[in-house]
Amino acid sequence: MSDEAVRVDKWLWAARFFKTRRLATEAVQGGKVEVNDARAKPARTIRPGDELRVRKDAYEFHVIVHAVSDKRGPAKVAETLYEETPESIARREQTREQIRAQNAAFPQPKHRPDKHDRKHLARFKRGG
């Protein structure tokens, strides 16, 4: 960790928001990352004290950068690079609950239909 500036795509990868640097770069280019309430480019540098908004899938993270790093380390070290705001945590939890409720309303089959199940479905569709 260092206290200089580092590219936003490298920092997102080092802070473990994205599995690869390529995914981090694509997210920044796709407009899913804002630095200090402005859309960022992958080469944009960030420093401690900057605020980032990262949209990933259905979730949005609002974090404050505490330290910068361009090396990906253990998850425990990555957690020290930023602090997520309490509002962001509450919003993500609310989104998680909404997704769980939606999934409960539309249950998925336990397994793919096998030969026996397909014959039953075919008979049902034929009406006999």
Question: What does the model show?
Answer:
- The protein is an alpha+beta fold and 128 residues long.
- Helix content is 41%, strand content 20%.
- It has five helices and seven strands.
- The strands form two sheets. A five-stranded antiparallel beta sheet has the order 3-2-5-6-7. A two-stranded antiparallel ribbon has the order 1-4.
- Strand 5 and strand 6 (59-65) form a beta hairpin.
- Helix 1 packs across helix 2 (21-29).
- It is elongated and about 75 Å long.
Sum this structure up briefly.
With 128 residues, the chain is an alpha+beta fold. It contains 5 helices and 7 strands, in the order βααβββββαβαα.
Class derived from helix and strand content: alpha+beta
Which strand order spans the largest sheet, edge to edge or round the barrel?
Answer: 3-2-5-6-7
CATH class: Alpha Beta
Assembly state (oligomeric): single chain
Query: How many helices in DSSP terms?
Result: 5
The number of distinct β-strands equals: 7
